[in-house]
Write a structure and sequence with these properties.
This protein is mainly α. The protein is about 50% helix and about 5% strand. It has a domain of about 280 residues: Flavocytochrome C3, Chain A, domain 2 (Orthogonal Bundle). A hairpin with a 2-residue loop joins strand 5 and strand 6. The structure holds heme C (HEC) (5 copies). The site of one heme C has 22 residues, from helix 2, helix 3, helix 13 and strand 6.
């Protein structure tokens, strides 16, 4: 059969109209999907700790959140746990006499945070305070209850309790409640130690009464929610209140000046007796010195990138190494293939690892020389404190240099210099004691 020209036109017209109708239906569906992001199945309150309950309202975010249980390694990071001490025995000497010489592992995803704390020899074999739980448990309701409605009061009460007693008051690892307001789903910061410290930091910069929950921009909150826990801390006073030492600034020497001012040391070194400091996971502090912070890129931009699901854009709640999803984590801003971005990161990390290794060698050499000198002068012990603080600050930071490459290299260069100065001070003392018979390395 041969169709006339008119019939062709009619058929094309009908097909076109059909396509438009389908498109409209599709748009409408997508709009509805976008509108229906939030179906309130469960009424969430300040006492809803269980993430599965939140998951009934927000199944997509909950799916990602649950996947923090998964384990996958990258060249230097990822979430497959291994013993840092076995991999790098120099750490055992650096931490001699401290709980970290017992067990220190590669961290893994948020779902494990409570279990891994329970199972470390650091809590099993050494007395620890309730303060440890601030960053490992969904602890807000417990604070409120202990404080008779006052979270800050409860925070101090639980901080001072023995770990195993405080542990009975919580039963969930990090949860939705820790980063979100249950009524509005807005991001919020809840950790008292963070709220006190950021206020002190802002005050040192001339801003009075800073409260991130009312004064921070949304983009800042996308970093602050992580800065609640991924930071350096110490336990202040006999009540062991977990405290972030930021009142003089976030840089390594500003934190050191804070500790020097209050004459704080975490422990006396097991081999030399030097009053030394232990750094822990200063991700927020280090990131703050890097180009991404300066450019307004937040932790969540790289670690919780957007994902498209139907018409919706959601944040990936499987918080993990960005190198496991470079397309979404980096290529939104950088116009290069994923393989190129990975190579750039690993080039930074390889250089950093080599410098870190040299700094550890220098510190271990200093420890050996102080020991050999017997009763080394205070100057040598002070150099050990300075070198140890810098090496450990960089070693305990979990990006292997990526968050702020140049700043991290600067810190390691200082560490090497202080360690070698310390060796000279120890040698000078040995020479004096031996009537000039001691030489470098002997
Ligand atoms: C520009 C992207 C970017 C930003 C912004 C960023 N990170 Fe990272 N982060 C990385 C990369 C890349 C690594 C290295 C991952 C690896 O080696 O597998 C990393 C590593 C980490 C790790 C260790 C992860 C692992 O798998 O071992 C933690 C923890 C971390 N970052 C936390 C933070 C926090 C907290 C912030 C904000 C204060 C932040 N990051 C900001 C890109 C970023
Ligand atoms: C300021 C928040 C904070 C406090 C307080 C805190 N932690 Fe952690 N902890 C973290 C973060 C963040 C990680 C993951 C990054 C890392 O391992 O460096 C972690 C990792 C760990 C790990 C797994 C890796 C490892 O070190 O073997 C253990 C175990 C642990 N912490 C035990 C403790 C103990 C014990 C205390 C109390 C002495 C404590 N934590 C106090 C934030 C905290
Ligand atoms: C309430 C405290 C807390 C908050 C808030 C928090 N973390 Fe963590 N984070 C931890 C602890 C504790 C661990 C270690 C868990 C373990 O090893 O058992 C950890 C582990 C990690 C890891 C390592 C897991 C892996 O797979 O490599 C990354 C990456 C990470 N956190 C990034 C972030 C980012 C990004 C944010 C903000 C969006 C954030 N964290 C918010 C406490 C916290
Ligand atoms: C470590 C902090 C953290 C935890 C824990 C967390 N979230 Fe989020 N969540 C974020 C961040 C950051 C965003 C991005 C918010 C923004 O950009 O304003 C977000 C966004 C959201 C959004 C808005 C839509 C989207 O995906 O961007 C929902 C809904 C949400 N989260 C639900 C949950 C649920 C449900 C849980 C628990 C199963 C949870 N979150 C746990 C940090 C967290
Ligand atoms: C939200 C945007 C954004 C995201 C996401 C982002 N970056 Fe960047 N990155 C920047 C900006 C802005 C700069 C500064 C240089 C510039 O202005 O071009 C930068 C600089 C860099 C540099 C040069 C660092 C230096 O010290 O000069 C590297 C390397 C880099 N990014 C890697 C990454 C990697 C890897 C990821 C993913 C894990 C990532 N970036 C994610 C915006 C981003």
């Amino acid at each position: 059969m041969k169709l006339s020209r008119w019939t062709w036109l009619e058929l094309t017209g009908i097909a076109l109209i059909g396509a438009i109708v389908l498109l409209l239906i599709n748009i409408n569906q997508r709009k509805r999907e976008a509108r229906d992001t939030f179906v309130e199945v469960v009424k969430l309150t300040e006492d809803t700790v269980e993430p599965a309950d939140w998951g009934r309202n927000f199944p997509r975010e909950y799916d990602g959140f649950k996947r923090t249980r998964e384990m996958q390694a990258t060249k230097y990071g990822g979430s497959v746990p291994f013993s840092h001490l076995d991999k790098d025995p120099r750490l055992k000497r650096m931490f001699a006499g401290y709980a970290f010489e017992l067990e220190y592992n590669k961290a893994r995803g948020h779902a494990w945070s409570l279990q891994d704390q329970d199972n470390t020899r650091r809590t099993k074999e050494r007395p620890q305070p309730g303060s440890c739980l601030q960053c490992h448990a969904s602890i807000l309701p417990a604070y409120r209850k202990a404080g008779g409605g006052d979270v800050f009061k409860g925070f101090e009460i639980i901080a001072a309790m023995p770990f195993h007693e405080a542990r009975k008051l919580v039963d969930h690892a990090i949860a939705c409640l820790d980063c979100h307001d249950p009524k509005t789903m807005q991001l919020r910061v809840t950790r008292p130690a963070f709220l006190y410290a950021i206020k002190a930091l802002k005050k040192s910069q001339g801003v009075e009464n800073y409260d991130p929950n009312t004064m921070a921009s949304r983009q800042e909150m996308r970093t602050y929610v992580c800065g609640q826990c991924h930071v350096e801390y110490y336990f202040a006073g006999e009540h062991k209140i977990v405290t972030y030492p930021w009142a003089q600034g976030l840089k390594v020497e500003q934190i050191e000046a804070y500790y020097d001012r209050i004459s704080f040391s975490d422990w006396k070194h097991g081999e030399t007796g030097a009053p030394v400091l232990k750094a822990q996971h200063p991700e927020f502090e280090t990131y703050s010195q890097g180009i991404h912070a300066r450019s307004g890129v937040a932790c969540a931009d790289c670690h919780m990138p957007y994902q498209r699901q139907g018409a919706m854009k959601i944040s990936d709640h499987n918080v993990r190494s960005p190198l496991l999803d470079i397309e979404r984590s980096c290529l939104t801003c950088h116009p290069f293939p994923a393989s190129e971005m990975k190579a750039r990161v690993e080039a930074i990390q390889d250089r950093h690892a080599a410098l870190l290794s040299r700094a550890e060698d220098a510190l271990v050499a200093l420890i050996g020389d102080i020991k050999a000198a017997g009763g080394a002068p205070d100057a040598a012990l002070q150099f050990q404190r300075k070198a140890q603080w810098r090496v450990d600050f960089v070693n305990a930071e979990n990006s292997m240099g990526f968050h702020a490459p140049q700043e991290s290299a600067r810190i390691l260069a200082e560490a090497i210099d202080y360690a070698r100065q310390g060796q000279l001070a120890a040698l000078t003392a040995r020479r004096a004691a031996s009537g000039g018979q001691a030489y470098l390395g002997r």
